[in-house]
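testing teh design pipeline on a random one, pls ignore if ur not involved
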C-alpha cells in the first residue's frame, strides 16, 4: 500500500535531542499549503506556559479568531509532551497533550494521552507539533527523527480505522522489526468522519504481543477535527530510546524520586488499587458499593448485575504477566489488554483482536450506564469505539441519554429507524456504533452528542425541553464522565466548572466530600476546588500521567496532615521538575504555574463567547433526583436531608412535591458554592478573572486583558 503513496511535500532539518527537557523549537505543518517548517519556542512559552497543554493553548490562541469554528482550516491540532515527558526514570512520564477547538463545545479542549508519540516527537527534535489547514485528499504526515525529514504524503489505500492503521503504518515506516518500537502512529477512524465525538488513538508497539497497542485522546471531538483535515495518520519515528534523552540537569535527583516510587508500586499496588492486574477497571465495584456507578443514564448508582463487569472478570480476561506500561519505565503498567476477543459484529466480524481495556470509564459508561453488564458486549463496543475513533465516555453518555429517551417515550422504533434502545440492549448499542462509522441511520444523530440531541428532540416536539435538559448529561456541550455526583456538592462543581466541560481529570472530590466528609463547609469545598484543579492541571503541562500520583500511596500517607494531596508524591514532582529542567520548584510554585495556564484557558473561553457563570451550571440530574422514581429509590436519604439540611418536614408530602423542595435546596447550595469558588480563585461573581489577579499571574498582555475588560 505504501507504493500508492505520493509525496506531496518534503522538508529536512537538523535532528537533535532536548537539553533540560526542551528542544527550544516546534514543528509546524499547514495541510492546505503543504508548508512544513520549524519555529523557535517563544520565550513566553517556556516561562509561563511550561509545555503540553500550556503550549497547546498558547498556540491555539494565536491561530484562531473569536469567530473560528472547529471545522475552519485555521483551527489547529497542537500536540506537545511537556518538559518532563519522555523521561524513563519516573513512572507515568510518557503523556502527550492534545489541544484543539472542540466540535462539541466551541471552546478549547485538552486531552491527555499515553502511547509513544509525544516522547518520540521530542527525541526527534520538537517540543510540539502544530497542524493547521486542510488537505485536498487523504494524507499522512511522517516525522522521521533519525533521518531529519518530515513529509506529507497522499495515502489513498490504507484503512483509516485505528487498529488497522496503527499496525499498517508501523510496519510501513519502521526500518525493520526491531525498529517498530521506535514508531508511533496517531489515527482516528470512520466513526470520527460522521460523529462529533471523535477521538484520537496514539499507538505504541508492544514487543511482547508483536502488535500496535492504542491509547486514546478521548475527549471533546479532536478525532473529528483530525479527520476533517483529511488526516489519515501522523507518524513519528524516533531514535532508540535510552534513559537520559532529556539531557536532565540532575539525573540522580530524577532517578532517586523514581526509585522511591518504583518501590512503593512494588510494595503496595497489590494491596491498594491492583492497577497492574486490573487497570482502572478495578473501580467498577468500588463505585457500585458507594452508589456512585452511573446506571441508566445516571439515574441510579448501583445495579444488581454489576458482577458481570466487575474486576474479577477483568482479572481473568486481561492477559496477565505482561508489563503493560504505555511508556518505558511506567511500573504502574495499567494499560491492560484483553487478548483473543473474537469480533461478533461489523466489518471485522470473525477477526481475533486485542482489546485495549476496558478502563473504568468505558466499563461504567458503555456498560453500566446503558444497563449492559455482559463482558463480551462491552469488549466489542470498546474495540469498535477505539478503532472507529470514537470517545467511549461521550459515546456511553450519549447512548445512555438516547436509551432514557426510549424509556420515557421520547424515542420509539419509528424515530430510531427500527432500533430498540431498551436498557441493556448490547446488539442495538453496537449497531449505533456501526451506523456512525457508515454515516447512516440514527447512529449519526447519537454521534452529534447529548447537547445537539436534546435540542433536536425538543425542536421536533418529541419531548419536553426542560426534562431533556434535566436528564441530558452535558455541560458546555461535553458529555459527563462516569461518576454520580448527586451526593457531592464539591464534585458537582468539579464537573460543571471545568473549563473544557465535565471531565474528572480536573477534580475528583467525591470521596473527600461525600465519603470522608473532610470538606464540610463552603470554604473547604472552595479550597479543594482551587487546589485540585490547579494541581492536576500541572500533569498536563509536563507530559505526566495522573495515576501514579494517588492510585498508589506511600505506606504512611494516611498519617500526613493532608493525605488527599499525597504530599510525598507532590514533593517528588518538584524534584523531578528541578532535576530535569534545572528550575527549582516549590509546592506553592507548582500550583502557581498551573494557575497561570488555568486562568489563560478561562479567558480563552470568554474570548470564544463562553466562560461565565451561566456556563458553569450542569443539568439537574448531576445534582439530585429529577424524577419521582429516582427520589423513591433513595427516599430515606432524601427525606432525611430535607428535614435536617433544608429544614422542611417531608411528612405527609407527596414525592413530586418533595422532588421540587429538594431541588430548590440543592440549586441554592450550588449557587453558594459558585460564589465561594469564584472568590477563592480571584474571579468576579460572574466567574471572570479580575485584571489584578491576571496581572499577578503574569498574564498582563494588553490584548489579553482587552478580552476580559468588557466582562468586568
Ligand atoms: S499509569 Fe497506566 S496510563 Fe499512566 S503512564 Fe502508566 S501505564 Fe500509562
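output:
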Amino acid at each position: 500500500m505504501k507504493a500508492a503513496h505520493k509525496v506531496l511535500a518534503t522538508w529536512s532539518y537538523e535532528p537533535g535531542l532536548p537539553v533540560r527537557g526542551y528542544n527550544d523549537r516546534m514543528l509546524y505543518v499547514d495541510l492546505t499549503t503543504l508548508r512544513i517548517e520549524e519555529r523557535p519556542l517563544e520565550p513566553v512559552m517556556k516561562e509561563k506556559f511550561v509545555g503540553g497543554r500550556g503550549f497547546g493553548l498558547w498556540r491555539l490562541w494565536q491561530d484562531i479568531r473569536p469567530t473560528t469554528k472547529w471545522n475552519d482550516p485555521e483551527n489547529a491540532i497542537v500536540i506537545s509532551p511537556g518538559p518532563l515527558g519522555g523521561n524513563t526514570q519516573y513512572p507515568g512520564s510518557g503523556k502527550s497533550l492534545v489541544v484543539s477547538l472542540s466540535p462539541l463545545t466551541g471552546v478549547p479542549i485538552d486531552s491527555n494521552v499515553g502511547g509513544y508519540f509525544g516522547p518520540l516527537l521530542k527525541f526527534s527534535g520538537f517540543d510540539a507539533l502544530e497542524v493547521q489547514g486542510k488537505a485536498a485528499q487523504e494524507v499522512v504526515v511522517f516525522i522521521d527523527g533519525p533521518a531529519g525529514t518530515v513529509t506529507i504524503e497522499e495515502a489513498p489505500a490504507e484503512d483509516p480505522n485505528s487498529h488497522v492503521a496503527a499496525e499498517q503504518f508501523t510496519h510501513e515506516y519502521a526500518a525493520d522489526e526491531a525498529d517498530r518500537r521506535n514508531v508511533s502512529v496517531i489515527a482516528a477512524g470512520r466513526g470520527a468522519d460522521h460523529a462529533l465525538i471523535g477521538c484520537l488513538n496514539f499507538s505504541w508497539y508492544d514487543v511482547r504481543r508483536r502488535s500496535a497497542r492504542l491509547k486514546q485522546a478521548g475527549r471533546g471531538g479532536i478525532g473529528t477535527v483530525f479527520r476533517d483535515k483529511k488526516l489519515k495518520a501522523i507518524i513519528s519515528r524516533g531514535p532508540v530510546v535510552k534513559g537520559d534523552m532529556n539531557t536532565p540537569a540532575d539525573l540522580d535527583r530524577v532517578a532517586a524520586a523514581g526509585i522511591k516510587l518504583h518501590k512503593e508500586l512494588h510494595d503496595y499496588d497489590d494491596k491498594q488499587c491492583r492497577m497492574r492486574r486490573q487497570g482502572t477497571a478495578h473501580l467498577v465495584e468500588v463505585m457500585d458499593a458507594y452508589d456512585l456507578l452511573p446506571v441508566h443514564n445516571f439515574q441510579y448508582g448501583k445495579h444488581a448485575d454489576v458482577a458481570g463487569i466487575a474486576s474479577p472478570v477483568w482479572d481473568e480476561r486481561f492477559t496477565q504477566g505482561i508489563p503493560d506500561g504505555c511508556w518505558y519505565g511506567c511500573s504502574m503498567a495499567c494499560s491492560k489488554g484483553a487478548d483473543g476477543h473474537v469480533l461478533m459484529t461489523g466489518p471485522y466480524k470473525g477477526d481475533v483482536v486485542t482489546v485495549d481495556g476496558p478502563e473504568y470509564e468505558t466499563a461504567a459508561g458503555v456498560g453500566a450506564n446503558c444497563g449492559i453488564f455482559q463482558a463480551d458486549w462491552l469488549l466489542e463496543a470498546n474495540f469498535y469505539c477505539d478503532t472507529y475513533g470514537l470517545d467511549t465516555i461521550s459515546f456511553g453518555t450519549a447512548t445512555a441519554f438516547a436509551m432514557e429517551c426510549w424509556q420515557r417515550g421520547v424515542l420509539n422504533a419509528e424515530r430510531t429507524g427500527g432500533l430498540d434502545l431498551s436498557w441493556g440492549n448490547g446488539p442495538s448499542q453496537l449497531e449505533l456504533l456501526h451506523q456512525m462509522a457508515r454515516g447512516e441511520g440514527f447512529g449519526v444523530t447519537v454521534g452529534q452528542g447529548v447537547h445537539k440531541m436534546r435540542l433536536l428532540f425538543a425542536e421536533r416536539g418529541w419531548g419536553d425541553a426542560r426534562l431533556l435538559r434535566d436528564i441530558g448529561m452535558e455541560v458546555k456541550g461535553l458529555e459527563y464522565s462516569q461518576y454520580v455526583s448527586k451526593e457531592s456538592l464539591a464534585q458537582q462543581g468539579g464537573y460543571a466548572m471545568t473549563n473544557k466541560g465535565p471531565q474528572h481529570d480536573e477534580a475528583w472530590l467525591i470521596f473527600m466530600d461525600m465519603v470522608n466528609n473532610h470538606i464540610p463547609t463552603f470554604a473547604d469545598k472552595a479550597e479543594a476546588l482551587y487546589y485540585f484543579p490547579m494541581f492536576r492541571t500541572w500533569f498536563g503541562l509536563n507530559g505526566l500521567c495522573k495515576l501514579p500520583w494517588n492510585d498508589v500511596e506511600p505506606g504512611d500517607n494516611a498519617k500526613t496532615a493532608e493525605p488527599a494531596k499525597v504530599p510525598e508524591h507532590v514533593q517528588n514532582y518538584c524534584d523531578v521538575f528541578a532535576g530535569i529542567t534545572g528550575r527549582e520548584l516549590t509546592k506553592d510554585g507548582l500550583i502557581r504555574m498551573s494557575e497561570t495556564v488555568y486562568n489563560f484557558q478561562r479567558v480563552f473561553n470568554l474570548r470564544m463567547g463562553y466562560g461565565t457563570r451561566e456556563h458553569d451550571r450542569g443539568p439537574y440530574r448531576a445534582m439530585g433526583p429529577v424524577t419521582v422514581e429516582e427520589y423513591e429509590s433513595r427516599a430515606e436519604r432524601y427525606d432525611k436531608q430535607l428535614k435536617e439540611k433544608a429544614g422542611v418536614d417531608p411528612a405527609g408530602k407527596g414525592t413530586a412535591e418533595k422532588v421540587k423542595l429538594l431541588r430548590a435546596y440543592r440549586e441554592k447550595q450550588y449557587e453558594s458554592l459558585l460564589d465561594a469558588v469564584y472568590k477563592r480563585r480571584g474571579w468576579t461573581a460572574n466567574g471572570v478573572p479580575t485584571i489584578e489577579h491576571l496581572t499577578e499571574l503574569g498574564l498582563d498582555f494588553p490584548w489579553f486583558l482587552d478580552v476580559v475588560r468588557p466582562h468586568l
